[in-house]
Specification:
Helix content: 55-70%
Distance between the termini: 58 Å
Structural class: mainly alpha
Order of helices and strands: HHHHH
Oligomer: single chain
Largest sheet: none
Number of strands: 0
Number of helices: 5
Strand content: under 5%
């Protein structure tokens, strides 16, 4: 069965990506750069702790029963895993565990790949976003914002100037 493009949905997603990137570059990134590395990462991970919302793709009535169950399962369980990893990363950053940064890498790589996989599966296995019902706002609004924040996490992880000099000094 050929995949048909839903232009209004794609424009909605593209608009959210663009707006998220502009807001992040204008307001969020300058504020994050002024924070100690652990604090900036913890703040971004907190945003991902709400990804358990993807489990709603497994709830009858939230989405149409016609939604491909393989797609719904991948979205739901992938997001739940990402939320758990984000919470674990937040705890590790808060308590300054030696594994904090590797956990952030794990959370961020998993979370990014999970979202990209969900878009791919949505386009190939469940091409009709009209079946998402109330869940339409997850891929149209929340996922683009999450992906932009994943990019910011990668940028912070790869910055050397934002080293953890704050470990012994209180932030101002």
């Amino acid at each position: 069965m050929p995949v048909s493009l839903n232009i209004p949905f794609l424009l909605s997603v593209a608009g959210t990506f663009l707006t998220s990137a502009v807001v992040a570059a204008t307001y969020v990134w300058p504020a994050l750069r002024s924070l100690p590395r652990h604090e900036a990462l913890r703040l971004l991970a907190a945003f991902h702790a709400f990804r358990f919302l993807g489990m709603n793709f497994l709830v009858a009535g939230f989405v149409s029963p016609e939604v491909n169950p393989v797609f719904a399962g991948a979205v739901g369980w992938g997001d739940l895993t990402a939320a758990a990893l984000a919470l674990l990363a937040m705890a590790a950053l808060s308590w300054r565990w030696p594994l904090a940064i590797p956990l952030v890498w794990l959370f961020n790589i998993w979370g990014t790949l999970d979202l990209l996989n969900a878009y791919f599966m949505g386009a190939t296995k469940n091409a009709d976003p009209g079946l998402f019902g109330a869940g339409i706002y997850i891929p149209a609004l929340y996922v683009p914002m999450l992906l932009v924040s994943h990019v910011m996490v990668f940028m912070i992880l790869m910055r050397t100037k934002m080293a953890d000099v704050d470990l012994l000094e209180p932030s101002s």
